[in-house]
Amino acid sequence: MPRVVKRPDDRRNEILDAAQALFFERGYERTTVNDVIAQIGISKGGFYHHFSAKEDLLEGITARLAQDAVARVRDLLEDPSLDALARLNGFLARSRQMKVEDAPKLRAAFDVVFRPENLVLYHRINAASIAVMRPVLTGIIAQGKTEGVFAVPDPEAAAEIILHLGASTHDAVARTIAATGTADEDAAIEALDQRLRFYGVAVDRILGLPDGSIPFVEPGFTRAVMTAR
Amino acid sequence: MPRVVKRPDDRRNEILDAAQALFFERGYERTTVNDVIAQIGISKGGFYHHFSAKEDLLEGITARLAQDAVARVRDLLEDPSLDALARLNGFLARSRQMKVEDAPKLRAAFDVVFRPENLVLYHRINAASIAVMRPVLTGIIAQGKTEGVFAVPDPEAAAEIILHLGASTHDAVARTIAATGTADEDAAIEALDQRLRFYGVAVDRILGLPDGSIPFVEPGFTRAVMTAR
Fold first, then answer.
1. How distant is the Cα of A207 from the closest Cα of chain B, in angstroms?
2. Which of A34, B55, B60, B80 is deepest in the core (most CB within 10 A)?
3. H/E run at residue A229
4. How close A136 comes to chain B (CA, Å)?
5. In chain B, where are the structural domains located?
6. Which CATH number, 1.10.10.60, 3.40.190.10, 1.10.3720.10, 3.40.50.1220, labels domain A8-50?
7. What mean pLDDT is reported for chain A?
8. Per residue in A16-47, pLDDT tens?
9. Measured between CB atoms, which of B154, B165, B197 is closest to A164?
């Protein structure tokens, strides 16, 4: 039987496809590297050429999902008629829409990633996502600075600060996950909503914009994502 | 020989004292849990009653150092004559002074904590430090809100956001560490200085203050800490 030689990127994507399907089907915890290997019929050596551990798969999946998300808003990012604020708000609105559409999968992923013992995983996923988003956000902020609307000394530094700010919502999200399905659910969702609103205000202010310029939540968004099954 | 029964907190502190001394003397990587156990002559069981791994020791040391730092500025935190902005700036100035005094030890710790493979350790140490600082900063921001000077909806959320913002400087610090002693040293220190200045501006803005209200660096501070040996 002739050996099928795949290009490295194809093989890498094939491994990520299989892992992503298994993680959602069986759960991240109950999936092993051997399951992924068996699913696509490659050797252990072939797997470990691309990834050194199961955690790397989640990081790779995150980077790919972030790249996909950026590709799906490419039209907005490249539309020459948009000023920076419209581009940023359009991008965020589309991201929220995608999150609501994928809410059941997203919520299942949250259940794993926000466990206290998975804090490391959370930070690795966050770093993988920040690496993809940094150039996109830097470009939008640079446009806003050129237009004289965003008041920041250094667009890349502003982008990094804003993206890292996301981690400040970690504990509030974790509390909401813990409260889902209990009597505290409504209060936890309202608290997270407030936190996200203030997160939006912090971003407005870092960019030198009036409060409320960049809405991070709209009515029902937090509930739709956090209670999806 | 009568067995010496120590109170749990005393024993815990004794373990942390020994670990802290060994980490600074031999380096974190070259110190093992067995070294710590041998140094104070306790049983393995006695050690694992308090800590589950070497990483826990660094987290415990960080929390203790943060508590010590807060204790050393207690006078500023409790001085009834200070308004919130003066209290916050006094607290930060004192923190910088302590960092410069401890610069050689701090720089040696940075060498370990900012290695790419120690990102997890960095986040755990950061979380331990944030847990100690959160109530302190929340108190100051609440005072500033009451005085009508800090414009924030929720002092605790503002404190959490500001403390998490610290992690956005991780990569810039890591780059400066890598550049120390090379031809790029001056440029890396200047880049980190700029980043820290913008970090200060981000904090000003999040608190609704004019840019420059809360200086995060003063001339020579970054160089003093980053080039200490």
1. 9
2. B60
3. none
4. 17
5. 8-50, 77-226
6. 1.10.10.60
7. 90
8. 999 988 987 887 888 999 999 999 999 999 99
9. B165
